[in-house]
Write a structure and sequence with these properties.
Blueprint: H1 16-24, E1 30-36, H2 50-69, E2 73-83, E3 92-102, E4 106-116, E5 123-135, H3 153-164, H4 166-177, E6 189-195, H5 209-228, E7 232-242, E8 251-261, E9 265-275, E10 283-295, E11 301-302, H6 312-329, H7 338-341
Antiparallel strand pairs: 1-3, 2-5, 2-7, 3-4, 4-5, 6-8, 7-10, 8-9, 9-10, 10-11
Helix pairs in contact: 2-5, 4-6
Length: 349
C-alpha cells in the first residue's frame, strides 16, 4: 500500500507557506494505476465505454492530487479528452496522472490511458486529458498546495502547455454559461432521473466525479443512438466542469441534447442537475459537450444524417456549437475541423 505524505507542519518561527514549499521537493507528482479491464467494464458497444475510462482517469488524478497536496481534493474540471481507440475487455490498462502546474489551491494534472495485450505487455495510448483538482480543508474550503517547480525541459514545456490553455478554458466556460436549454428546442433529447446511490460515494462522502462522468456518457449515448439509429461511442469530451458537489440521496437529472452534427460527429450538450428529492429547485452541478460517432458492426465510424435547426433555439445552439469548435480549434496544439476549415475566408494574394 502506498504511503501518502503528511501535511506540512511549520516549525517554530516558520510560516505555513514556507513549510509547504520546504516539503514540495519530497512529494509525489505522478501516480500510475495498472489493472485488467474486466467483463463488468464492457459497455454498450462491446468495448469499454468512455464513461468507465473517465472514472479511471478521475481515480488516478485524485491519487496524484492528494499525494501532492497532502490533503483531500475535489474534481473541478476535466477537459480536452480525445478517445483515440477503445479499450478492449481483457486488456492490461495503465493510467498515469502527472502534475503539470499548480495554482494557489489547484493542481493541473495530465492523465494518459494506455492499454494492450497483457501477454505481450505492449501498451498503446487510448486517451489523454487534463484534470484539475482543488485541495480543500475539513470545512470544504480551498487550501494552499505546494508549488510545482519543473526540473526538466520536458516538465517546463508541459507546464507551458497547461498554462497556455487557461485562457481558452475560460473562454469556453463563458460560452457554455451563456446558453440555456428550453422546451423550444426540437432536436433529439433525453432526460434521465434517479437517486444518487450509496454505491456512488467517493472518499469525501459525496458522489464520485468519475461516476458523474459515467452518467454523462450514458445520457450522451442514448441521445446520439436514438438520433442516428446505431450504436455510438464518445470520441471527445470537453469542458466538464463540476460546479457544485452532488450528495448521496440527491435527486439527479441528466439531460442530453443534440445541438450540432458534422460529417460523422454528433455534438451532445449534457447538463447534470441535482437537489433534495423532497422538493425544491435542482441546481446545476456539471455540464459539458460530448462528441459521439456512429459505428458499424466492424467498429468503423460511419456518416450520420445531418441535423437541420428548425426553431430559433435550435439555431442559437447550432451556432453555439460552432463557436465552441472555433475556440477549441484556435487553442495551442489544436486545429479547426475540416468542415469548418473549408468555410474559412481566404486571404487575397
Amino acid at each position: 500500500m502506498e504511503n501518502f505524505p503528511a501535511p506540512a507542519v511549520p516549525s517554530p518561527g516558520q510560516s505555513p507557506a514556507a513549510a509547504v514549499a520546504e516539503t514540495a521537493a519530497d512529494r509525489r507528482n505522478e501516480t500510475t494505476l495498472r489493472f485488467l479491464a474486466a467483463p463488468t467494464d464492457r459497455g454498450k458497444s462491446g468495448t469499454v465505454d468512455a464513461g468507465r475510462v473517465l472514472e479511471w482517469v478521475d481515480k488516478a488524478a485524485f491519487a496524484t492530487a492528494t499525494g501532492w497536496s497532502g490533503s483531500y481534493c475535489v474534481t473541478a474540471y476535466v477537459g480536452n479528452i480525445h478517445f483515440e481507440y477503445p479499450v478492449q475487455v481483457g486488456e492490461m490498462v495503465e493510467v498515469t496522472a502527472t502534475v503539470l502546474y499548480t495554482g494557489r489551491s489547484s493542481m493541473h494534472i495530465n492523465t494518459t490511458v494506455r492499454s494492450g495485450d497483457p501477454k505481450t505487455g505492449i501498451l498503446t495510448e487510448r486517451a489523454r486529458c487534463l484534470v484539475i483538482f482543488v485541495a480543500v480543508d475539513d470545512e470544504g474550503r480551498s487550501t494552499a498546495v505546494p508549488e510545482f517547480v519543473p526540473r526538466t525541459l520536458e516538465q517546463e514545456l508541459a507546464q507551458d502547455y497547461a498554462t497556455s490553455r487557461i485562457p481558452v478554458r475560460d473562454e469556453i466556460a463563458d460560452e457554455l454559461s451563456r446558453h440555456e436549454y428550453t422546451e423550444a428546442g426540437t432536436a433529439e433529447r433525453v432526460v434521465l432521473r434517479f437517486l444518487a446511490a450509496p454505491t456512488d460515494v467517493n472518499w469525501g462522502g459525496k458522489v464520485h466525479g468519475g461516476i458523474v462522468m459515467e452518467w454523462i456518457d450514458t445520457a450522451a449515448y442514448l441521445c446520439s443512438a436514438r438520433y442516428c439509429g446505431r450504436d455510438t461511442v464518445a470520441v471527445f469530451s470537453g469542458g466538464i466542469r463540476f460546479l457544485h458537489p452532488l450528495h448521496i440521496g440527491d435527486l439527479v437529472e441528466v439531460e442530453a441534447r443534440l445541438i450540432y452534427t458534422g460529417h460523422k460527429g454528433m455534438h451532445i450538450a449534457v447538463k447534470v442537475r441535482s437537489g433534495d428529492p423532497k422538493g425544491g429547485p435542482l441546481q446545476p452541478t456539471t455540464n459539458c459537450i460530448t462528441v459521439m460517432v456512429a459505428r458499424d458492426h466492424e467498429g468503423t465510424s460511419v456518416p450520420v444524417p445531418p441535423w437541420e435547426p428548425v426553431s430559433e433555439e435550435d439555431q442559437r445552439l447550432w451556432q453555439h456549437a460552432r463557436t465552441l469548435l472555433r475556440i477549441r480549434g484556435q487553442a495551442p496544439g489544436n486545429r479547426l475541423p475540416n468542415h469548418l476549415l473549408d468555410q474559412e475566408p481566404r486571404e487575397e494574394d
